[in-house]
């Protein structure tokens, strides 16, 4: 457990929330040590965690660095925080300043939850698994851009690699029936969770604006970036819907999927004079959001809690990585064989043609999603509405 004390005094009512106005003190309960990292005055950084949730020291150092950026006024690390080119699980508010570097290249990447309209009793898992396994890559499937304008995403209607996926799910348990009633689906229908983004389009934008010093909000560069950013958000959402429709068509499902929730987690949001930068973080403005775990774990439907302002109006986007991808093969190659990679602890099925990617996405490579969700709940950031159970996960 990592607990941070603000000048040795924890803020009442936020168990596990970390606030430090001048120095950062970390205590590890298993190895009892104290360390301090100085940074600029008048900065508030909060790390939201609990005793069950692991936090990576490299990510904490990245937050400390971001806190020193000009115009930065608030930085939060969510329970799924881990290091990346910029930290993932980050919410950072800057006053009239934009840092495209913090958002990264997959602008608009997010989670879309859909109602397929298919009844669970009509789901043929054996058939679907075989059909999906026969896909060499999604670009091989029939597809036409349904929009009048030309797509800036070259391979529109695909999910890409890495941690992107399409997962068919069912409702598992309901904790808040009133909140769940806002979504238009029945308990006996197959749901689909789609994780992908703007593909190469977002990376092109990032390449053109890859400047760590960022841009003042009133500059032409900021205006140009934000215009392209909005395009990437729109096309990322379209891409999620089209990728699912493309797969359902291949599986012989004639129903048009209905979007229930769509939440980007790599984007900039303007709130008054603040520009909130989110990398692997959801906006709490959504009445409901989906937070998935690793392959073969439950996903969680949540609603924002009463203290989201303290996390820069943000929630976790997933479990968060624990191991670097480069470590997974050596650590797991003797644990899994080809067949065991196709099944999960929840008896769901996995289709992935790339064995190395399957190892990189193994549950062991991720934090415990239950601990992440508990940290959100413990800190008043979220309330669990329902859980969703995986049936079949496809990684393209």
Let me know the average pLDDT: 89
- Indicate the percent of residues in helices: 10-25%
Give the class from helix and strand content and strand pairing.
Answer: alpha+beta
Principal-axes geometry comes out as globular
Overview of this protein structure:
- The strands form five sheets. Strands 8, 9, 10, 12, 16, 17, 19 and 20 form an eight-stranded mixed sheet that branches.
- The chain has helices spanning 57-67, 100-103, 125-133, 177-180, 200-208, 220-250, 325-332, 355-360, 369-378, and strands spanning 2-4, 23-28, 36-38, 44-47, 72-82, 88-95, 97-98, 110-119, 165-174, 189-196, 215-216, 258-264, 266-271, 274-279, 281-283, 289-291, 299-304, 314-316, 349-352, 382-395.
- By secondary structure, the chain is α+β, with helices and mostly antiparallel strands.
- Residues 1-39 have low confidence and may be disordered.
Secondary structure elements and their pairing?
Blueprint: E1 2-4, E2 23-28, E3 36-38, E4 44-47, H1 57-67, E5 72-82, E6 88-95, E7 97-98, H2 100-103, E8 110-119, H3 125-133, E9 165-174, H4 177-180, E10 189-196, H5 200-208, E11 215-216, H6 220-250, E12 258-264, E13 266-271, E14 274-279, E15 281-283, E16 289-291, E17 299-304, E18 314-316, H7 325-332, E19 349-352, H8 355-360, H9 369-378, E20 382-395
Parallel strand pairs: 4-5, 19-20
Antiparallel strand pairs: 1-2, 2-3, 5-6, 6-14, 7-11, 8-10, 8-12, 9-10, 9-20, 13-14, 15-18, 16-17, 17-20
């Amino acid at each position: 457990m990592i607990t941070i004390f603000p000048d040795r005094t924890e803020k009442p009512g936020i168990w596990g929330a970390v606030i430090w106005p001048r120095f950062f003190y970390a205590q590890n309960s298993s190895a009892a040590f104290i360390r301090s990292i100085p940074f600029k005055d008048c900065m508030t950084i909060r790390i939201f965690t609990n005793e069950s949730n692991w936090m990576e020291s490299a990510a904490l150092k990245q937050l400390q660095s971001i806190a020193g950026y000009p115009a930065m006024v608030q930085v939060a690390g969510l329970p799924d925080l881990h290091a990346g080119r910029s930290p993932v699980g980050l919410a950072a508010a800057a006053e009239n300043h934009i840092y495209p570097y913090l958002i990264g290249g997959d602008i608009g990447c997010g989670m879309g939850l859909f109602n397929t309209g298919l009844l669970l009793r009509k789901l043929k898992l054996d058939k679907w698994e075989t059909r999906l396994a026969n896909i060499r890559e999604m670009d091989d499937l029939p597809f036409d851009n349904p929009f009048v304008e030309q797509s800036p995403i070259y391979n529109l209607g695909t999910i890409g690699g890495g941690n992107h996926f399409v997962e068919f799910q069912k409702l598992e348990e309901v904790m808040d029936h009133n909140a769940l009633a806002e979504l238009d689906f029945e308990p006996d229908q197959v749901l689909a969770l789609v994780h992908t983004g703007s593909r190469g389009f977002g990376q092109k934008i990032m390449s053109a604006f890859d400047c760590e010093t960022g841009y003042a909000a009133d500059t032409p560069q900021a205006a140009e970036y934000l215009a392209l950013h909005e395009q990437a958000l729109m096309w990322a959402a379209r891409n999620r819907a089209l990728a699912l429709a493309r797969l359902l068509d291949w599986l012989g499902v004639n129903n048009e999927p209905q979007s229930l929730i769509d939440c980007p987690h790599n984007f900039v949001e303007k709130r008054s004079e603040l520009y909130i930068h989110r990398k692997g973080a959801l906006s709490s403005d959504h009445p409901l959001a989906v937070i998935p775990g690793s392959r073969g774990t439950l996903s969680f439907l949540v609603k924002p809690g009463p203290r989201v302002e303290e996390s820069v109006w943000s929630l976790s986007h997933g479990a968060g990585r624990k191991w670097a991808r480069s470590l997974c093969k050596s650590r797991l190659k003797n644990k899994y064989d080809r067949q065991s990679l196709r099944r999960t602890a929840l008896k769901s099925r996995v289709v992935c043609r790339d064995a190395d990617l399957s190892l990189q996405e193994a549950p062991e490579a991720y934090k415990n999603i239950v601990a992440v969700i508990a940290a959100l709940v413990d800190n008043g950031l979220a309330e669990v509405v329902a859980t969703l159970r995986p049936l079949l996960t496809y990684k393209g």
